[in-house]
Each structure stands twice: as structure tokens, then as C-alpha cells.
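Class, carefully examine what follows:
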Amino acid sequence: MQGLQAAKEKASGLFANKPLLFKNAQYENFHVEQKGYDQMYDGEDLETPPSPDRPPPRHIDKYVRADCPCLSTRYTVALLACFGFSIMFGMRCNMSMAKLKMTEKHNTSSGVKEDTPFNWTVSVESSIDASYFAGYLITQVPGGYFASMYPANKIFGAAIVASAIFNMAIPGAMSVGPAAVVMLKIAQGFVEGVTYPSCHGIWRMWAPPLERSRLATLAFCGTYAGIVIGMPLSGLLTDYISWQTPFYFYGISGIIWYILWLWLVFERPSKHPHITAKELTYIEQSIGTATQAAMPGFFSTPWREFATSPPVYAIIVANFCRTWNFCLLVIFQSAYFNTRFNMQITESGFVGAIPHLIMTSLVPIGGMMADYLRKNNIMTTTNVRKLFNCGGFGLEAFFFVLVAYADNKYVATIELTLGVACSGFAISGYNVNHLDIAPRYASILMGLSNGIGTIAGFIVPIVIDYMTQEKDQLEKAITEWRAVFLMGATVHFIGITIYGIFASGELQPWAETAPPYETPLKSLDQETTFSEKPSEPLRGTEPPAYGSIAPPRPPAPQAHVPNNPFVSGALYQAEPIQPPAQTFEDLTDDGTY
């Protein structure tokens, strides 16, 4: 028995101060410390962890739970955000296909006849294309600021549904005149300008650090999935029904998506009524309290540090370069295949979707690869961001040079597909970098960088329309489109240089939050004294008053009472035991007992 007791004591000493850890294939190793206790909580013994922020279930939750049975809550948020971006970027394809339909040439007995119901000039088309980015630019930084102050999920959802409603109004505005279309496009860009910053505001609350790349890229791949689906779908609806149909289709899709978004997505994990205890604990403990702290006001936001930080400038330049070439492809890719290789509308829509289809699959793969390299300490976060961003930009620039000199539509399609697909790796670089350098200000930085990057989207339609004024003539089209793609490659090479030098993946000093002030606690080796009002000073410890107000003074030290059960987390110490008392006997005559 003594040997068994000794082994038990040895094991107890070995694990006495060890936190309990649990591991699941879906979660990283972590532990949760309960306030006031030295023991650890593993999240298994409670169906719903207590949280003051968690609301009671809504009326609809009594009949249908707000969760997807086959997905965790955070991946449900990512998937719905992906669908939202798909609808938003699909709407951008509606106008380009409608313009091709309205300028379609028909062979008649009297010759070639061009169907131009609105008879817009090149300058009018450029104004309509650029008007969207004028509104998009205005709300970038304000959108990031509001997403940090208010629930980002509500801002994101409201932006998508408002854009969908505006999209359904565009066909009617086209019958009124180009000025009405320009106003609607500005309004559409105005509300969509908050989507990217607010999405970063969502991940500030929902994305564990080692899952930032995969969650963010899963959401952002909807951008390219929207192009993949939007181009051929808009072409089919335009060809077989009417040019107005894509506008109505995507408008209704946006409204349906918004209903699902309101049902399934909440501001933060602690406010979700049906998130599992394990996932809630994992997200909140891995993120910590710094990113969930209250945001500072406008004047206390470190704007000066933003303006003097080289990593911030690296992200801004990368965003500008990426936006330049992305807008080039979204707006003019169908026109390139149509005028350079004489493709029909439906064919050019399908061919134009192929590069974005490949990229849509590579974007989340790149996110998982980036997280794998970081999680296993193979590369630092800084090197991972530089590798993926510069590698993606460099490969796309290389294939753009090949596309510029392509003389065959099949060769051009393959080269463009490879270039655009490889650029998907860059999303795991600059587009997630905000969460690395300043997670607390990620939504504001995203608005700042995306706002300046939007200037490229504002300039591209004007510049490309000016460079391709004679694209209807094949000889001129060859040289004009060659110059367009060579310029796109040059823009990417500039972005590679600046991002490779100045980018960083480390938390910046100005982004760290000051530790909150905590009132010094009484040492655990003192006895806890209870009173009716805990805030009152202990009796007998009031300092003498030298006026009308007696200054407060800490309570006087008290004698240690070990093994106090009322002190949370008190150390249980072994005390010496007084020897047992013996019966007292009188002395005998010889002085002995």
C-alpha cells in the first residue's frame, strides 16, 4: 500500500500544474483557463458555454436551427461570404455582355447591320464602366471604419442586397438614358465599396490565426467564381432570352442570398445561438481578447502610423496592381476574344470563364498551403506572404507577355488560363496581410488599400478604351491588344519589386493594444475577510482623517490562514501537525515519572 501511495503522489505532483489539452482533427491544440481557477476547462462538459453576450434563440431557431449540419460555423460564414462575392462579381459581368449584345453585327441582304438600340459612343461606354468605381472608391475607408465600429456581418449583407436591387433597376435606367445608368452604377459601387473591408471585419472576430489564410481565401474565391459563372451565364441569358435577363436574375439571387445570410451569420461566435461549445472555445481562445477589444474612436485610430508604415504601402501597391489586371480581364477579356479572334458572345463568355475557373480552385488551395507552411514553422509569415504574392504576380506577368504575342485563339486561351490561375496564389499574400500586421485594424486597412487600389479600376476603362479605339480593324487590334497586355505585365513587375522589399507578416508595434489596467489583488497568503459591502474598507483599518475626506488606504496585512476554501485557486499547503497529547503524571520521589 505504501508503494501504491507513493506512486499516486508522484503522479499527482507530475500533473498538478499541467493544463489539460484536447485535440481534434478540426481544431488546433489549445486550453481554456477559467477565471479564478488554476484548473483548465476542456469544453467537453458543457453543451453551451456560459457567455453574457449570447442571445436566446430567435423564434425561427425553435423550428430550424441556424447551422449547417455538415459544416462548422466559421466555415458556414466563409461559404456564404463566398456566395455573396460570387453574386456581386457576377453582376459586374451583366453590363459587359449586354454591351456586346447591343453592338452585335448581323448579316442581312443589304449588308452587315449593327444592332445598336442605344447608340452609345466610346466615351459614354467608358463613363458607364468607370462610374461604378467612382462610387466604389468613396466608401472604402469609411466602410472599413464602420465595419470596425458596428457589426460587420450586417454591413456586408446590406451592401450585397442593396447592390442586387440597384442591378434590377439598370435595364429601366438604360431606357431613360446614359445619365441614369451612370447614377445607378455609382450607387451600386457606393454600396459594394464596403464589402471587402467589412469581410475583414468579420474575420477579425471569426478567424483563428492559423486559419486566416484558408478562411479568407475561401471567402474571396467567390470573387473569381462569380466571374466563372457570371460570364457564360450572362452570355447564355443574353443570347437566348434578352440582354435584360441577367440583371433580373442576379438581383433576385442577391435577395435570396441575403435571407440566408441573416439566418445563419452572426456578428461574433459568442452571439451565435447554436455554435458548439468546442468551436466557440477554440475560436475565442485562439484569437484572444486583443482583436475583440473595443475599437478606438476616429481620432485615436493610428492614422499617422498607417501613413508611415512600409508594410502598409506594400499592401496598397500590391492591391493597386492586382486591381489593374483584374479589371482588365473582367471588363475587356470578352472584347479581346471577340475583336482579336472573332469569337461569338456565348463562346467568348465560356472561354473567358476558363481562367477564372482554374483560379477559383487554386485560391483556397493556396490558402491551405500558406497556413501549412506557417503552422509547421517551415517559413515565417513574412516569407510566406512574399512567396505567394510575388510568385502569383510574376507568373501572371510572364504569361501576359506570351498572350501579347499569341496568334492563335487556343494558344491565347491556354496562356491566359495559366497566368490568371497562378495569380490566385497572390490572394494568400497581400489580401490576407492586413490580418497579420494589424488584426485590430484589419477592416480599416483593407478599406484604405482597396480604396487606393480602386483608383486602378477607375483608370483602366478609360485607358484601355483609349488604347483600343480601332480594335474593330484586325491589323490595329493586334498591336493595340499587345500593348494592353504588355502594360499589364509591367504593372505586375512593379508590384513584385515593392512588395518583395517592404512587405511584412509580423504584428506592427502600433497595432498592439495596451494591456488593460487591473486592480492589484490581495496576496493569496492573506486571509480573506468578508463584509456586507466588499467595497468598504475593513474595520479598524481606516486611516486618520485630516479634513472632511478620509483618503482610502489598502487593508492592513493579516495573518496567513492556509487551506482557506473561500479563496479561489488558493494553494493547499501541508501544515505541521501538533504531536498528540500524552497523559500528565506526577513526578515520583526519585524525580522520574
